[in-house]
Amino acid sequence: MDGCSAASTLLTDSLELELGSEWCKPPCFSCAIDHRAGGGGKRFSGESYLCSGALKRLILNLDPLPTNFEEDTVEIFGIQWVTETALVNSSRDLFHLFRQQLYNLEILLQSSCDFGTVSTLHGKADNIRQQCVMFLHYVKVFIFRYLKVQDAESHFLVHPYETLEAQLPSVLVDELHGLLLYIGHLSELPSVNIGAFVNQNQIKLFPPSWHLLHLHLDTHWLVLEILHMLGEKLKQVVYGHELMNLAGDSLTNVSLFEGHCENLLCDLIRLSLNRYDKVRPSESLMSDHCACPCFRELWVLLTHLLDHRSKSSLSDSFWNWLNKLLKTFFEKSSDQRRPSVPVIQSRDSIGFSWWIITHVASFYQFDRHGEPDVTRQMESNWNFVEELLKKSINVQDGILEEQLRMYLHCCLTLCDYWEPNIVIVTILWEYYSKNLNSSFSISWLPLKGLTNIIKSPLSMLEMVKTCCCDKQDHDLYKSSSSYTIFLCILAKVVKKAMKNNGCHPWKQVKGRIYSKFHQKRMEELTEVGLQNFFNLFLLLAAVAEVEDVASHVLDLLNFLKPAFATSQRALIWRGQMAFLLMYTQKNLDIGVLAEKVSCAFQEKAKEFLVSKNDDVVQRQNLWTLLSIYIDGIQEVFETSYCLYASHEKLLNDGFSMLLRACRESELMMVLRFLQAVLARIRSMHQQLCQELQRDNVDLIVQSSLSAKERHLATVASALWRHFFSFLKSQRMLQTVPFSQLADAAADFTLLAVDMPSTAPSDLQPQPVISIIQLFGWDDIIWPQVVARYLSHFLQNSTLCEALSHSGCMSFQALTIRSWIRCILQMYMKNLSGSDDLFIDKNLEQAVEKEYVEQLAELTRLLLKLPEVKYIFSKAQVEYLPIPEDPKKVLVRFLEAVGLAYGSLQTLSDKSTLTAKSLEYLGEVLKYIKPYLGKKMSSAGLQLTYGMMGILVKSWAQIFATSKAQKLLFRIIDCLLLPHTVLQQEKELPAPMLSAIQKSLPLYLQGICIVYCQSQNSNAYLNQLLGNIIEQYIGRFLPASPCASELGQHPVLLALRNSATVPPISSLKKCIIQVIRKSYFEWKGSLPPPRLASILAFILQLFKETNIDVCEVEILLPGILKCLVLVSEPQVKRLATENLQYMVKACQVGSEAEPSAQLTSVFRQFIQDYGMKYDCQVYSILETVITVDQYVVICLISTLTQSLKDSERKWGLGRNTAQREAYSKLLSHLGQVGQDEMRRLENDSP
To answer: Where does the signal peptide begin and end (predicted)?
Structure first.
């Protein structure tokens, strides 16, 4: 047993042979893999020839079934046979029984198979199949164990059994040939549904057709095994006794094996071809070319067996067998040798060849156990593929992109499986070098995620990275053009070749590619061609020598004419920026590239600056190039591991020119770039600081870090130089969007914190404070900028700490002042609109939502300042206001300052808080002045007057001090007594009048408190109060006296809402003085306007407040004057009501006797009007009698004397009419009146 001894030496190298395991069931084809029941990731069934180890034992020439057929007898086809002699004695009978069983199985196909019959049919069919498979395995075991090699030259008499045994190999060849003829071809079997029925026990039941198909597969494979074992056993050619092949040659085991292999491969090709005709090109590699896993297993078995035989004999390898059959697709002459089984012609012979080779190549990954083995060297078939590729790109035959994509996708997959092949790249490059200007697109299939022209340098690099990936997208057909797939092939081949053989393959490829580009070819490139050009060289740079490739690209670009179209010029810029990005990502020095692209940028920026604004096309073309540069170097800075001096070249004077020429949308892009670069520099600086602070940093590392820090400082200085000066110039303009101006300024502030030495000299020695003064504390900056800037500033704890330690003790007060200004000027941006924009609208709608949110954020941060917390704590405010409404927070803050001042005890503390409070306000009147101009904002005026009113009232005690009183006077002059108010002939604008009406009570109350709190008498303040009341008491009087309208008069509201007595009395006294002066001291016959309304106001005033006799003494003469001189019924009625109310009020306080002041007023009234208006006087006094007759009784002597003086004056004796009127008055006075009447009658005239 030489074979066995040889096999034993191979056991040490075999794959985990387990001779001790018992195989109860011989291996067979089965696709009944249950992945749910522990099948896991197995590709083949446990019963298969691979997983069971049958293939391994065949190749190693070991016992096929070492634990089976060991008994003396064996049951085959239900008959007991002697194990060691059955095949010699009854070989023809056994093969006859095999064909009989096969026939019985075919008969079962005629039975109807459904859920009711499948169980029975499955059992019968499975039994037949197992018997047949068992027999063929017995033949294998018999050959291995019992077949003896006969000496052909022996002339000794032999036993008849030995004669039969000597004939057995020839008999087996004949029987196997006959069996193959009987079962026919796999491709001729009817189509079988490989699905199974599943019973209630989850057991799969298959129809007879399934069993027939798999028995055919078993038979075809086991015949090959038997023939192979026969040749290995006998080591010689075995001739058949009875049969010859079609050429007339004698049939041998070798010819039968080869013929059967050819037939079997043809069958498998034909079955695959049937499936290929139903597959779309886009799904070719995603669709399995095998009907079931058993066909895949058969392919794998054939690859292993044929390759094994080719190593030990002159027989062809598997690929040679397959190539020989596939070449028949391309043979046109009929005299060529054709396979014994005709293969139908494919609609796409080239495509099918690619498809079948790619799928079959993947089977080489499976080892002899059927397990994927990534370390296994896969046999390549490049010779055939090279010829196939040449046919595929034959332009004369008219190649279509949809076909080429599929071909190249297959080629790419083969490059994954096999060793690198430079010839493949060369063949493809010959085609694509001639077609670079082609878009390689399919009209009915747009590329997913890609366009012919890639829009950004980063996306160009991403495309290259995708091409260089080891694993490509399965949907490559739809997502990439054939050119992109070629680039994937190029990358894969070059990387693999350089890994195996160093730089030599790269030099080969480089020479082939570089040689195709010269000046004429570069000038012929269209925009699409340029894109393909850059994609190619970017990929070469990614997989090989980036500096060499980039240098060559720059040389080639010099061939291009400057008059290129803008789109092509833009593409060139994008390509150059992509190379710059690649340098950055590989951490290479960008100096040469940076110099070239930055100079081009500076030149275009200058053209952009001098270009005319009306030349839209030119500006758009220039901006396209400039935006490419900006986007590109932003990516450079963001992806750089560290910055070098060469990075400064990218930030040249071009930006200074560009910023001055940009419009708003363009500026937004440039400033976004600036912010990104600033953030990157600060991030790098922080990392360097952390590394420098580490312990045990050696001198070399420290020197390297210091050099990096110097490079960072150089780049930062360039940013200060080219950008900050521009931002500084835009503080008061609206060219730059507010949010971006604030953000950029905040970033520069943080940069000044981290790297103060890089700031320009005009910001030194404290650049942080200087920048904050420019953008946060300066009163001339737009509030939208300040609010956003301060929000950045306050939320940065590092910056706040830096200010605290910088000696700037007032930074909190300055920040609060800016916050107050931001709120007061929140409607400032809308001043350009008409008043209609602010009438009948919600005030919040007049402010941009973004600014309101920004103010809320600033307010939230400001409430965390220690100084603000101190104010609220001193005011004993337990809960801070909600920052979502900044105006309410400001109100609470102003009130809290006033309360905090009131809680202080010492004079020094009060003086300190007064100074601090004035610092909070700053030039507050300048903040609100724009609202008071010609273009008035209703919302702004409401806010201004309301806040200033709250300020005057809440800070009354502060304004009572000499330090703050000047500000109070200025507020009064600016808001309540401006020049327009003093011009009586001019009406105040309605928005202003409305704002004053709502806030006037606050001013009046505050001024009165200031007046009362003043340490010395303040005649000027009292005068101002009187002027205010004088100006507005009449302006807010209704046209007709109406109690409901008068109740909302701001002067009355000031009295009604006042909380303390002294301010009420002083305010009321001032009001009464103003009324007497303005309405009751008129000259001439015409009374003042709205006299009825002022009388109604006085009546309402006395109803709501306690009347003092002194106040009656002031107002009653005017009331009486109205009754005498004004005949208007409404005036007389209201004057009478006032008279009655005053007399009653005086009666309450004087017990029985009328007050002397009241009597004095009436006495003077009689003296003034008694002679001329005696009847009116008597009528008025009759009214007084109805309220308090004692008042009139006290006036009898005065009345009588007035009567006599009147008669004496006129010199006509007794005035009968007057005496009758006077007697009528006296008649209402009872006895006292009667007595006076008698005295009058008795007196002589």
So the answer is: none
